């Protein structure tokens, strides 16, 4: 089965973004009929690698060969022409169009000399291809009526339609149930036997070990190793992904016994039900759970962004009903949102202005902003946090993600809130700034701030938290402390009862 | 995810070099608008000797003052991410309200206050629907455009109101040290608005709401209050323009202010306001209004037909936007 020429050979790929070296000399090869895992933490460079492979991003250096032929990728179309198909995590199709129309999107079968689309012929051909994959899918139905797993099969069908030799799947199981994963695994095995090569990106170890033969591990944009999965263990792979022993980085607890925030049976009437917990001064409380388990929604209720329908919130012993974030901020609660660009920054305004937004009253006198005072304080704050470049007059949109995050955190320090809610604090942040953010969170805890951290990255939760709450289907399923805080324990509580099947799936992908 | 990149585009270095020469209060974009105005002035001055005389320049400022007044309000609305199409009819409604009171013998200051209150009420109505009912600014103020015009027409039966007291007319048509009163009024208002936009918390709120409404809300900005206030300001400034015009004409016509909204948007846009929100400048808008005023004045002096004046206005607006796009990179 193993032939001399690899189906895909990637050599010395480099790709840099301003402030980040996303890929730094990555090389690996994929054999014909091989399922090859591409592994790494968030930010390791997996997605960038896929984007380079599919021609979305152009590499700064290195080469890609398919069956020994060197590729020159300029556009996404070039990769497809060379037989590389991409199945994105967010499936890319047009909901209102039929399955067949989506299959032929961009290059329809023509009739009447190219004036019309040969709809009937498209559907017939689509039916042929789908018969092999999932005969229950009707090509004439609008694609949005299908289940996500079926939509994914349509994507695979599209890859086959273009006679792809290499199919790259980015986190294909992020919205699949365990039984749907089983069908996908079976399908992948069949494609493999037919000689299709598959690149499987996931950070769920059990899946990778189940479907892949070999895997390439990336860390901080660098190639770490290509391993034969039959000859290694999950623990071995994880430690090479993370590059350190997680347990050794457990932080020192600064938790006190004084409650800062007490939430009692909070609910939003839709998703969040009966959420109760207490957050103490100096404590870092981790909030784990699958994507869609309600973690962000709970944070938004506590921060006053969405209105709670039931329950009580007490801050420093005082009861509150928040009708707006403004009221929550006045009570001493600040949120560092997950989607920085959408919910965090005002791009064209300076760092100083972004910092001052919640604290305008403090920074102004007689209706006018004291620019000099603001500038001085913002500069001092950002100096402590090592803002780069250290210029608070620059528009925040011109900074890297990590530096924007420092400004948003600085905003809440300037507002002197007691309680900080972090939603995925290191998403989209390069590895160097990441540890700065961790150190900062610990420093804030040491100063007596009460901190709640939502994260999909278990190492992050393990590194930061004194206690860990696990959410499942809108409810707090468990609160773990001390020795109970293990990856396995968190995973066990995170998986919905109905779907529980012993998969050690712990966190959802980025 | 590693592919989520952040743009760390450096501020271009030539801009920095130029930056150091300019006074701190004049942004690079405003300097560009000023340059455009100077070019237009040079062209007309070389074509017509009358153009660059003090009386004519004052005349241009006077002619631009009404549009400038409306455009300043429009600038605030546009920065907040909205648009106010109802300014013309708002002006008409407050003009007829004020004029009717004056004609009925109500003391002039009271009538002025009533006219201002009428305009601000129109703005409050717009703003409340936009901030609390979540309606689109374009549609709400389009409705307001018909609504306020209809109210003005119904109230007057379609006829102009005469009998504006001489004392009021004398003030509006007077001058301060040779500068026409309307120009002085707009100058004072513009100075106040500059301080509001650049030095007050409310100014930061407007820029934040227009730049990224959701982020502003999460950062504790009172979004609804900010939005309502800009529409009230726009309505109030429409009343000021209405009072100036009423004083100059000696009558309040319910059809006053037809298409004012378009001139105002043009002035704001030439001055650097982004219709996407989050950007705009008081100085720029003033310059934009004067550019449009100079253009009309210069072409009239040269006896160019009104049709061609319209053509020139259109070309200037589009040219300004193209230059804006090219120099700023993104709209």
UniProtKB/TrEMBL annotation, chain A:
A Pfam cross-reference name: ABC_tran
Gene Ontology terms: cellular component: plasma membrane
Keywords noted in UniProt: ATP-binding, Cell membrane, Hydrolase, Membrane, Nucleotide-binding, Repeat, Sugar transport, Translocase, Transport
Molecular functions (GO terms): ATP binding; ATP hydrolysis activity
Entry EC no(s): 3.6.3.17
Enzyme class: hydrolase
Gene3D superfamilies: P-loop containing nucleotide triphosphate hydrolases (3.40.50.300)
Bilayer topology annotation: Peripheral membrane protein
Top-level taxon of origin: Bacteria
Subcellular location: Cell membrane
Listed name of the protein: Monosaccharide ABC transporter ATP-binding protein (CUT2 family)
From TrEMBL, chain B:
Protein name as it appears in the record: Monosaccharide ABC transporter membrane protein (CUT2 family)
Pfam families documented for this protein: BPD_transp_2
Main localization category: membrane
Annotated transmembrane regions: 31-52, 64-83, 95-116, 176-197, 228-252, 264-294, 306-323
Extent of the signal sequence: none
CDD domains linked: TM_PBP1_transp_AraH_like
Native source organism of the sequence: Limimaricola soesokkakensis
GO molecular function term, any single one: transmembrane transporter activity
Annotated localization: Cell membrane
Keywords: Cell membrane, Membrane, Transmembrane, Transmembrane helix
Membrane topology: Multi-pass membrane protein
PANTHER family hit by this protein: ABC TRANSPORTER PERMEASE PROTEIN YPHD-RELATED-RELATED
One GO location term (cellular component): plasma membrane
Organism superkingdom: Bacteria
